[in-house]
Amino acid sequence: MPLREEFPLKIRQAVALRAQYTCSFPACRRPTAGPSDESTSAVASIGVAAHICAAAPGGPRYVAAMSSEERKGIGNAIWMCATHATLIDQDVAKYTADVLIGWKRGREREAAAALEGTARGTTHTASREVIEIGPGVVAMAEMTAGAGATWEFALDHFIVGDFHDLVRFSEDFEKISAYDRYVLVESFGDGRVLKTPPRWNRNTGRLVVTTEVFPRFARERAQDLGRDVALGANGDITLNWETIAGVEALPQKLMLCLSYQKASNFIHGDFGTKVAEYHSLYRSTRWLKTLMKLEAIRLASIPYADATLKTEYTPFVCVDRVHDFCLLDGGLAGSWCKAFIDLEVNGLGRWSTELSVFIGKHPPESPAPRPSWLAGPRG
């Protein structure tokens, strides 16, 4: 019998976030996550990423024509409490795939509307930050201290990951790649490498996280960018083999860095971005813009240790600060998407441009083919 096509963790996290961890059953709307009394860090969860069309033959609403990627993709997932996840599988005549898709879209519309209301006026709104601590934790927070090497944040809620992921990141800090030890602050447009594991405590009911950071990594001047072969808009070598350097090479440098997907090279496994993954999981939510900007901040501020060249450099090389980075609506053409980026560039000052970013056509579980010249690390 074929194995069940279970949802990967990142799909489960994304569908829960899109529903604000609330059951999508219209008459329920029950929160599915909260604190547990087992300890001050324990979390209780009754939520399930349920399959709209069954995970295996013979299951409710099974569609044989679906591919493996579709069956375990976010389009086939709906967030439910455990009770209603069971109920929808017991009456497939009543709870059809179309019904469940309608519920899912309705719950996501409600979540988006609630989020817009929150953004316009609740406690701590004016001083809220979106921060990223390592590759698995993104949270809404208030920066409460930032003297010297100490950055302190009071977390309001998690956007990606949860408290358990923060604890694991701290516990496994010495085992984690140095390239993944960082903290990013969206409003700063900048980030720092972490010196030590994050520490936390409870203060008046809020989770306060303290980080110790290294000084800001030095950037090069844009005028000093090295000479490279000029590529076409689709990332391939042009027939005339022209070369570019300095400021002229900056747009291409950004395009290559943003288009190079993480873990697509076994030699430089840490190098690359999650732009394609974020586009697949969050493209119809307001979080896409935030997550994309955080990725650009990471590329601008966190140094990569290149074992081949035996040196360190930030992938963006000369970018001091990221003011904005977003994919443009209607810009998708095949595997490429138009994007806008607004930066503070060493040697230039404030600088912005539109460029193309390769995001692929396939879900993150199945790496997309890339243009032949879409090289990764600097060498």
Describe this structure in words.
This protein is of the alpha+beta class and 379 residues long. The chain has three domains: 112 residues, no CATH class; 88 residues, no CATH class; 137 residues, Nuclear Transport Factor 2, Chain: A, CATH 3.10.450. Helix content is 23%, strand content 26%. The protein has a seven-stranded antiparallel β-sheet, with helices on both faces. It has a three-stranded antiparallel β-sheet with strand order 16-17-18. The chain has a two-stranded antiparallel ribbon with strand order 1-2. A hairpin with a 2-residue loop joins β10 and β11. α7 runs antiparallel to α8. The longest helix has 24 residues. 37% of the residues are buried.
Structure in a nutshell:
By secondary structure, this protein is of the alpha+beta class. The chain is 23% helix and 26% strand. Strands 9-8-5-6-7-11-10 form a seven-stranded antiparallel sheet, sandwiched between helices. Strands 16-17-18 form a three-stranded antiparallel sheet. A two-stranded antiparallel sheet has the order 1-2.
